[in-house]
Fold:
Amino acid sequence: MRRNDWPSVNWKVENPETCKIDSAKLSEVESIVRTEYHNLNGLVVIKNGFIAYEKYFNGSSSNDLHHVASVTKSIVSALIGIAIDAGFIKNEDQKVLDFFPEYVADPVHQQKQDISIRHLLTMTAPYAFEDWHEPLDKMCMESNWVEYALNMLGQQGTVGTFKYSTAGAHLLSAIITRSTGKSSREFANEYLFKPIGMKEIPLFEIESYDYDHLFGKDVKGWVHDPNGYTTGGWGLTLTTRDMARFGYLYLNQGKWDTKQIIPQHWIQETTTMNSNNYGYLWWLREENGVFAYVALGDGGNVICCIPEQDIVIAISSEFMVNPADRWPLIMEYIIPAVSA
Structure:
C-alpha cells in the first residue's frame, strides 16, 4: 500500500470515523480492559497508517517504557534479517557453532553440529529440557550464559521438531554481536530503531542479576548478560507507540518511507503460515478468516499485525502471573470495532 505519511517523529491521529472505525464499539474496549485486563497499561491501534485509538491505564502514558518480555525475540528476528542483508551473516542456514569457534562440543551430541540459525529462529532446535519447561533461572545464575545455552543445545529430541526456547534466542543475540562487532542493542539502535523513529536504547549497567533487574520492576533499557551480550529472548523496554512502529514496519514489508530497513523476503519468510504456527520468532494465527502475525511477551505484551485489514495493535502490560489472554480482547472487541 502506498503511504504518504511516515511516523518517524510524530504520528498523525485520525478521527475514528474517518478510518471507518466504530466509536461505540471502541468505547466497550476501555470498559472491558478496566474490568478484565487489570495489568494492561497501554493500547495503541493503527489503522491505514494513522493512530485510530490510543489509551493508557494504571497511570501510564505514551512516554512510558515497558518491559515487553518475549516481544524482544521478534526484534532480534528483525536484526538477524538486517545482519544477513548487510553481509555480516551469510544466511540463515549458517551453522550456529560457526560463530563460537572456541566452544568444544561433546562428540556424543553430534547433532549440535547441524543446528543452524534457521533452527533457532523457528524454534526447531532440540534442547536438554522438556517442552515448555525451560529452566531459564538456571541460565541466569551462570557466569557464562552463552556457554550454558550451547551446552543445552542439540540434546533430547531431533532437529526440526518445535521446542520453544528463550536460551536459543539469546544465542541469536550473541551471533549478532559475534558477526557485527556490536551488541544487539547497539546494532538495533543504528540499523532499526533510529531509522524508523523509535527511541534509542541507552546502556544501563546491571546492579544485580536478580529477578527484579532481569525480569521485574528494575528492568531498564535492554538487559545484558554478565559478558555483555544483550538478552535475545526478553529484557527490552519499549513505549507502546514504538511497539506499534515496529509492527507498522512489518506491515509495510520492512520498508520505511523510501528506505528498505528489513528485506521484504525476510518479512515474507517470517510470516508464512506453517504447521507450527510459528515463523521467525513471530507467532502466526488464523481465526474466523483473520490472519495475523503476532509478537507475544509474558504478562500480556503484544504486537499484532493484521495485513489484510491494514491494522497494527500494540498492547503493553505490567508483568503478572497468568494474565488474561489478549487474543479474545483483540478478536471480540478491537477487530470488530476497527473493521466496521
